[in-house]
Write a structure and sequence with these properties.
The protein has 14 helices and 8 strands. By secondary structure, the protein is of the alpha/beta class. It has an 8-stranded mixed sheet with strand order 6-5-4-3-2-1-7-8. Helix 2 runs parallel beside helix 3 and helix 8 runs antiparallel to helix 10. It is globular.
């Protein structure tokens, strides 16, 4: 698969990756997310059917299924079968609460699964995700991995779990995961994860935590070199240290790390109500909806102007983004799209899609 890179703000001729939110509802109770508080909307199967010709014209290859929690949608399997029947590769981002129940079906339908897991014990998981569900989530990961589908774990690093950094790697290996990845909790973007209420700003590391976090990264880099080299730990050491710099900036101890991202030039997000976004962290124009012609929505003048601003570095959300993603559009492959670290993101997916992309 090859493609000429589209200049920022130009008409998109190809869209290799689409993130599709099946629902705004979620069964997690995460402290940094409001999907579970306010989510009500589900997509309908007919709406997905109407979208298929657009995906074909745009030569979409991978659909990232997210939400909210996509496995709460009563027709999630029917939607997955419909998309798969069109030759699309499917990637599931999930909180994992329902994965054990649906592991066999999900493994048959999805080419890759990413699970948000923010604790290595029942106590730390519940403190962040709001539920005592650590064991069921781990069981779902084991079952899906045993069924033969690559299952990755996405960890949102925050004050309540940063000391568990090495344990996450060990836990992922024990559960049979193919990969573990790390993302800083987003406290700089007030609209991430559908936030409407005040959220736990203390989720970020504090100044007194920074030296300890740096020592943990140093130890991980030193002791887990083979797992970095194999890709089992998705991030390079440099990207882990970027998470440290992000928290340093949050603590006013340095500038935010530079960002480089062209995600809107090869991917788009479609919310459960049909709105089209250039990425997870930036809302699209309110009037731009996928409808029956996604290409026309992406070519809307306001959407093109938004992509142009993103490409020119004019959006403040990009300056403090926890999840920048740059890909050479000439070398994008289906395999590469399915092995982007994560998942969440942001599968968290309780609002996680782009957060799963790095």
């Amino acid at each position: 698969m090859s493609a000429q890179p589209a200049p920022s703000g130009s008409s998109l001729q190809r869209l290799p990756l689409v993130t599709l939110y099946l629902t705004e509802r979620c069964n997690s109770r995460c402290v940094t997310c409001d999907y579970w508080r306010h989510g009500r909307i589900d997509v309908d199967l007919q709406g997905i059917q109407r979208l298929l010709p657009s995906l074909a014209r745009l030569r979409t290859e991978v659909v990232l299924i997210s939400g909210g929690e996509p496995l709460l949608h009563p027709q999630w399997a029917d939607i997955a079968r419909l998309l798969k029947s069109q030759g699309l590769k499917l990637w599931l981002l999930t909180s994992g609460l329902s994965l054990a129940k649906h592991a066999r079906t999900a493994s048959a339908l999805f080419d890759s699964i990413t699970v948000s897991l923010d604790g290595t014990t029942s106590q730390s998981y519940a403190a962040i995700r709001g539920l005592d569900a650590f064991d069921p989530v781990c069981a779902g990961i084991r079952l899906a991995a045993a069924a033969g589908t690559p299952v990755s774990i996405r960890v949102t690093v925050q004050r309540a779990n940063f000391r568990e950094l090495p344990e996450f790697v060990s836990l992922a290996a024990r559960l049979g995961a193919s990969q573990v990845s790390f993302l800083a909790v987003d406290v700089a973007n007030p609209h991430a994860f559908a936030r409407q209420d005040d959220f736990r700003a203390d989720a970020a590391l504090q100044a007194t935590d920074l030296a300890e976090f740096e020592c943990l990264i140093d130890a991980l880099v030193r002791e887990q070199a083979p797992r970095f080299a194999s890709g089992f730990i998705a991030e390079s050491p440099a990207k882990l240290y970027r998470i440290l710099r992000y928290f340093q900036a949050v603590c006013a101890a340095g500038p935010f790390p530079p960002t480089r991202c062209n995600a809107p030039e090869f991917s788009a997000v479609i919310s459960a109500d049909g709105r089209v976004q250039p990425c997870f962290f930036i809302s699209g124009p309110r009037h731009v909806r996928a409808g029956t012609d996604l290409a026309a929505a992406l070519d809307d003048p306001d959407m093109r102007a938004l992509r142009r601003d993103i490409g020119a570095g004019k959006r403040t959300e990009c300056e403090r983004c926890v999840c920048t993603m740059w890909r050479d559009t000439e070398s994008l492959t289906t395999y590469g799209l399915l092995t982007l670290p994560g998942v969440t993101q942001e599968a968290s997916i309780g609002g996680s899609a782009q957060a799963a992309l790095r």
